[in-house]
Every structure is written in C-alpha cells, then in structure tokens.
Specification:
140 residues; Lipocalin; mainly beta
Length: 140
C-alpha cells in the first residue's frame, strides 16, 4: 500500500489526506461506522485505482465538536467494502474489503478499529467457482 500523507489519529482533510495522488479524482462512500447518526468520511482517489478496480479508501472520524478536526483512521484497500456485524473499539464497525487478484482470485481483508485506527486483522485468499460461489482457504 502507498504511504499515507498523515499518520493514523492525526488531523486530516478528507479528499486531500490519506493515500492520494498529486491530482486526485475524488469519490466518496461515507458511512456511519460508529452508530452515532453521523457518517464518517470515506474518500477514494479513483486516479490510484487499478485496472481490476482495486482502490485505497481513506477513513476519517467525524469531528465531535465545533472547531475540532477530522481524524485520519486508516485506509481500506479493495474494490468493494462491506460493513460487518462485529465491532472494534469505540463501537466502530468492522469492515471487510474485496481485493481483486488475477485469474478470478480475490483477497478478503477484514479491518478492525483498535487504538485509534483501522488495522488489518485477517486476510483470506479465495477464488470464484463456476457456480459463482466463493471458495476460500481455511484459516486456523
């Protein structure tokens, strides 16, 4: 993964900070990840997406009070994101991403919020079967 422009937990500006190119093509997928009724900013620079549709999704925690900054919470890498039913610290929803590999294979990556930012906690390689099911490696 490219190096983010700010450290996890630091003040950041969605659309400028995180994993971004010099001339970003901004898209958003804002979601309420902590259940407080306010969406966290999730920003992607489409200029950095691969031909397979893989992108870097920068997450920013919403400022809690007027005058506070948004805090960079990490970057998900994937072509698609899926909020899970489990939670990490601060009631932040775990997120699964789908990273497309070559030959019908993909990596399912699970991120959990710990110590102020999202951390990759599990990665499983899968392939799509002829009937469209995902066949994944066993994890132990």
């Amino acid at each position: 993964m490219p190096t983010p422009s700010v450290q996890v937990g630091a003040c950041g500006e969605p659309g400028r900070d995180g994993v971004m190119s010099a001339k970003p093509k901004i898209d958003r997928a804002d979601r309420d990840l902590d259940g407080d009724g306010r969406a966290e900013s999730i920003v992607v620079d489409r200029a950095l997406c691969s031909a397979e549709g893989n992108c870097y999704w920068n997450v920013f925690r919403t400022a809690l009070a007027h005058g506070e900054c948004a805090r960079y919470a990490g970057t998900f890498k994937g072509a698609a994101l899926e909020p899970l039913g489990t939670k990490g610290e601060d009631n932040m929803t775990d997120v699964r991403s789908y990273w497309n590999l070559h030959g019908g294979r993909l990596s399912l990556e699970t991120y959990r919020f710990v110590r102020g930012g999202y951390l990759l906690v599990e990665a499983v390689q899968c392939r799509r079967a002829s009937d469209d099911r995902l066949e994944c490696m066993e994890t132990r």
